Amino acid sequence: MSQTRSRIDRGRNALGPALELVHTGRAPTRAVLTTELGVTRATAGAVAAELQTLGLIRVDSRPGAVAGSQGRPSHRLSVADDGPVALAAQVHADGFRAALVGLGGRLVATTPGCMTVDADPAQVLGEVVAAGAELLRRTGRRCVGAGLAVPSAVTAPEGTALAPLHLAWAAGAPVREIFDRCLDERGVKVTGQCGNDLNLAALAEHRHGAGRGAHHLLCVGTGHRGVGGALVLDGRLHTGSAGLALEVGHLTVDPAGRPCHCGSRGCLDVETDPLALLENAGREPGPEGSLLDQASALVRTEYATDPAVQGAVRLLIDRLGLGLAGLVNILNPDRIILGGLHRALLAADPERLRAVVADRSLWGRSGSVPILPCTLDHNSLVGAAELAWQPVLDDPLSALEAV
Predict the structure, then answer these.
(1) Where are the transmembrane segments (predicted)?
(2) Sequence-ordered list of residues with C-beta below 8 angstroms from that of 25, at least 6 positions apart, any chain
(3) CA-CA distance, 374 to 343, in Å (whole number)?
(4) pLDDT tens column, 82-130
(5) 215-373 has CATH 3.30.420.40 classification
(6) What is the pTM of this model?
């Protein structure tokens, strides 16, 4: 093989890793890209130029120094503002939403959230895909793929929603098959992917938010109903043998507690979700806004002044801390991030939550695990888009040729 051919092959093989470095913000300059890829400056320059030609990134024409850096300035790299997008969709107990998401986890456009969910998944997915197709039509963006987040354990690779407990959908709904069919009917000629909403939120937070840099990231959070969890190991979701790992919502934290949809009692799913907070605070769910929004607003606005809200928050914190302690003992994460209502509980009394986890976990006594709030808005939508972007990150040339 000639040296020229060898250089070309090395450059092509580096396109995916280089794009992922820019996508996740780990290569802000061509100099950093050179170091991270372990290639020559010439190869890194050629790779960056090729990604720019593909319309995926931008390379500043004039080098600029990064604050705090030493040595000569390097060309800055960024995702292309006008580049292709992924169509992302999310369905939850209180509605659904579609969005277009670019590289870097940037929300390019979103639809208003719909507040009703039909019992027929084909009806719901048809509506959310139609909304996404309209966004594509209005923006004129090239679409690389589509991803769907649902509040259910989802089998891989079939894409079957085994237990959409908080939707009126039948168990075993073939959501990926339906999603693909809806995309085709609306003229969106890409492959659809689907996954559990908390898994996808964790993936988005690891790449673009509060989980960035963690090697063993545990994410726990509330949806609009129920509780989910996810584990990201060295940049990849741990989904188990069939995509069903980390159903943490069904950890028992109060054996005498509320009946759970799974058949047990006192699970995190029913003891620390938005409805549990409202009921423990003596509040009836209102007709306006989702349960998640109502519960989060109650914590933010009345925790400091209302004893009933204070008692409810502390009860949920203690039960959440008990569940997190058990997970720390089993998984030994290097960071925990909390989403949904759990983020609001952490903000209300971080010392109490961290103390419960430290007191109830083996490793908490010898070295506390950082517990942080999720930072991304619509992280499940961003995570759904990550599913669609993954083939492009793996092999940009082949993936873009296919769409």
Answers:
(1) none
(2) 104, 208, 212
(3) 7
(4) 999 999 999 988 788 999 999 999 999 999 877 677 788 999 999 999 9
(5) yes
(6) 0.90
